[in-house]
Amino acid sequence: MSPVAWSALLIVYVVWGSTYLGIGIVIETIPPLLGGAIRFVIAAVLLAAYVAVRHGPGALRVPLRRLGSAALVGILLLTGGNGMVAVAEQHISTGLAALMVASVPLWLVVFRLATGDRPAVATMIGVITGFAGVALLSLLHHGGSGSALGIAIILVASLSWALGSFLSGRLPLPANSLTTSVYEMAAGGLALIVVASARGETMDPGQVSARSWLALGYLVVFGSLVAFTAYSWLLGNAPISLVGTYAYVNPAVAVLLGALILSETVTWPMLVGGLIIMAGVGIVVSTERRARPAAVPRADTVSVGAGEPG
Fold first, then answer.
1. What does pTM read for this prediction?
2. What single DSSP character describes residue 296?
3. Low-confidence ranges of the chain (pLDDT < 50)
4. What is the DSSP code (8-state) at residue 303?
């Protein structure tokens, strides 16, 4: 693999793994849903400008039905998924959030079962293994890493993200993947504004720390734009088996950064439960890749049909 490809993979590893830390710093002085709204609205505008310059303004014109599908997927991914991750991180550590979100591929199999699909036996073994890890983290979340409320919220976020990812492969979306991301981020960001208002979230820019502003800028530029571009490029220029390793590396990066920068507690239940989840996801991803070679869905910024809850 070329040095460019390795650089792109490193970006995906580090940036997507660090978005949980970025959210944790943003919500120190910015309300969680408003912070997400600002992030995705700005990212949508910047990406729309790029698409218009690169492909012409016509690339942003899509049929109403496809626009509606992209909006629905964006709301599930970014409002219900990413937004709830930010809310959950008010109650649990960023590392624990990343480990719980890593269960998204397991939920995707559950949705397939609900629609009559019959995954391979090995896939089901992976799902059962992974959910055993989720159960362990949910039941043994003590030790400073989280609360029952935070666990419940992050489970809702994972479920919403998985549903958005699942529907994205079954709904008619814009042909251009970047255009799809524009409308997903726009819809998700606008919906976050509505939900934030309903929750009574307000923000005084003068009370926001420079640290939170910098983290928000990092999420916009690197989390929602640079890493997504790197991932999209990798899908066409690197072995999918290697690209898919981001699903195992991102949680480890998130736990490490949370411990080093935010001094978060890393408990033995977190380590054991996280390893069990990763083992389950590994079984599912490897089995499904052999059964039907395809792009691995992201369990974390914004992409067509999947993304970064962090």
1. 0.87
2. P
3. 293-307
4. E
